[in-house]
Predict the structure.
Amino acid sequence: MGFKCSKLKIFDNEKALVDISFEIENSFALVGQSGSGKSLTLKALLGMLPSNLTSKLQYQWEYKLQKGKSVVLVPQNPFTSLSPMTKIKGNFFTKDSEIDKFLKMVGLESWLKDRFPSELSGGQLQRVIIAIALSHKPKMLLLDEPTTALDSELKEQILELIKYLQKEIGFKILFVTHDINSTLLLCDNIAVIHKGKIIESGKIDDILSNPKEEYTKKLIEANFKNREFRC
């Protein structure tokens, strides 16, 4: 069964900041500029909205949305996501004998668990974060621009790793990003969000080859020039 969000509204007092609906059959990308509402969407699904905001969420899924259980976040910056004074193994919330298994799943050697985050590269750190996410046995991964801090080669490796793990494990993916190009490696369907509303959605190939909205056209053009689009 897919995840169907029939209604997500996020309010600041009576002003609606986000008003969207979407469905995740397998892997779904929510793409837009900074401030479009995509990060607020993630926070609402995780129950992490700031106290000054409220939300109304209606969804259909066989699982309950539970942060750190059914739904797990892979954050944007691996360099700030782990405790710098704690060894890698201390960032896992699972027994030590299982840490090796999850590190192996993301292509890392077990000896890395005794290193501090500052001793690892950006690519290694992002793999560690994915391993930690997998240790929670998620039903859905929320990806918050997980390759922004990586170069193009590492970005492709990380996205291919996530795609492989999804096939092996079977979790859903919600990938939020400004980089429409990166969604090609991971997602089947895409929605373009602008000022808190989805203005265009469909199969990625269809949207890229025949965008209907001028905003989408500019977003695609800017991304394939390797720069972020901003209004």
Notes: Residues 227-231 have pLDDT under 50 and may be disordered. The longest helix spans residues 152-169.
